[in-house]
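Handout, section 3.2

Students often ask what a structure token actually looks like in practice. Rather than define it abstractly, here is a full record for Outer membrane lipoprotein Blc. The first block is the sequence as you would receive it.
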Amino acid sequence: MRAHGFRRAVRWLPLLACVVLVGCAGAPSGVEPIRDFELHRYLGVWYEIARLDHSFERGLSNVSAMYTIRKDGGVGVVNRGYDRKNGRWKQAEGKAYFVDEPTIGHLKVSFFGPFYGSYVVIDVDRDQYSYALVCGPSRSYLWILARDTSLDPAVMAELVAQAKDLGFDTDALIRVEHDQSDR
């Protein structure tokens, strides 16, 4: 009887894995990705101005992301940050693909094989694509990005207020220092 139950449970594991992986590529409830997203304008280097703390960036300063077009039509992602404790640069390479249409700012990104997480562009400077507000699959992940290592305080305040209105813990935002050259 136990072996039969085990075999039945094993049959459901692939389905459960799919549900978990799809869930990680979703957006937090009440958070909508931007429409009329223009990937070609989003490509290039972005600097992390502020973020909510999480283990894979903990302790890093001077964080940047480079987005490029991949040969398969996806987006190449290279994240870099300076680890002050160890005195060295850390880098992670990944890939991203649109979840829906390429005009909707919702991508799934992977740095670890078949496992994808959500990358939701909540807001972007429509004129120059000079700043962006981005989240992950839950309200535990939030980034404020800019094309430069600093951001106008008024724009920063607007983005923080927008994130707060969406239910993010903006009091916990970490301001990212940019005092090392990585290029």
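Discussion prompt for tutorial groups: Confidence is low (pLDDT under 50) at residues 4-23. How would you have guessed this from the sequence alone?
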